[in-house]
Amino acid sequence: MKIAATADIHSPKYLALFIRSLRKLKEKPSLFILAGDLVYKNRIEMLKPVVDAIHRMLGNITIISVFGNEEFRDHEEEYVKKYPEITWLNDNYTVVQADDLKIGFIGTRGALDKPTTWQLKNIPGIKRYYDTLPDKIAEIASTLKNRVDRVVLVSHYGVTYRNLKGEPRHVWPHLASTKFERLIEKGLFDIVIHGHAHNGLIEKITIGETPVYNVSLPARKKIVMIDIDQYTPQGLERWIFRR
After folding, report:
1. How many CB atoms neighbour CB 156 within 10 A?
2. How do residues 60-108 score in pLDDT, each as one tens digit?
3. End-to-end CA, the chain
4. Claim: this prediction has a pTM higher than 0.85
5. For residues 116 and 126, what is the distance between their CA atoms, to the nearest angstrom?
6. pLDDT by residue (tens digit) across 219-234?
7. What ranges in the chain are assigned the alpha helix state H?
8. Domains (ranges, CATH) in the chain?
9. What is the dihedral of CA 1, 81, 38, 155, to 10 degrees?
10. Which of 8, 104, 130, 180 supports an S-S bond with 144, CB 3.0-4.6 Å?
11. Is 8 left (phi over 0), alpha (psi -120 to 50) or beta?
12. What distance in Å separates the CA atoms of residue 94 and residue 76, rounded to the nearest whole number?
């Protein structure tokens, strides 16, 4: 089973690159993951050509998406109403049966070690939100662990500094959360997908036994294909017991 994943389309900015990347896919994925920043500065109408292109080239495929910082806070319901064909995740989860696997997808904008200056001025309580979000996501993952075959975390913001090479070091705290890295080290997720790091040179790293993908379209210049079957669920004892 393979899933396609991308982020940071910022439609219309990278829309042409996105469509070219779709055309280059050599096989049809089972699912399509959009990891936030789909449109430029909350231009909600510009998500339509993205969705239309996916359906035109891949047919009636399940699309799961999180919001990015370009999908402005307090506008989430507008996206949900305008694009009901997308399963939107916002600090919650969905379970999908695909091929022979039951997969739990946890979706979030994610957290930052340091909110940006703009966020501190314009989003009340943002620092506390970033500080407490990892615990909330950990609780969701713990709930899912024994109910599904794989747990996949989809975050817009980065989840570690280890794959931020290519980005200026002084901005790393504004791109990712090391608290999420500690959750990954604990084996709470089987696969982690994120975007936001446009200049990140590294597509995939492994933390513990967990693969972490930066699928940012400006960074990868392609849609990333992930073969879920190649990854053993975290905790072999759990896997054997459930089988």
Report:
1. 27
2. 999 999 999 999 999 999 999 999 999 999 999 999 997 788 999 999 9
3. 19
4. yes
5. 10
6. 999 999 999 877 767 6
7. 15-23, 48-58, 76-82, 117-122, 126-144, 178-185, 217-220, 236-242
8. 2-242 (3.60.21.10)
9. -60
10. 104
11. left
12. 17
Convert 196-213 to b/e letters by CB count within 10 Å (16 or more is b).
bbbebeeeeeebeebbbb
* CA distance readout (Å), 113 to 69, 140, 160, 182: 15, 21, 10, 13
- Polymer length of the chain: 243
Determine phi and psi for 226, rounding to 5 degrees.
-120, 125
Which of 22, 65, 68, 66 lies closest to 42 in space, CA to CA? Answer: 68
Tokens linked to 224? 């990333």
- Written as six digits, the tokens of 1 are 């089973």
Q: In the 3-class helix/strand/coil scheme, how is 96-113 assigned residue by residue?
A: EEECCEEEEEEEECCCCC
Name the residue among 45, 44, 86, 96 with its Cα closest to residue 66.
86
Query: What is the distance between the alpha carbons of residues 37 and 31, in angstroms, rounded to a whole number?
Result: 19
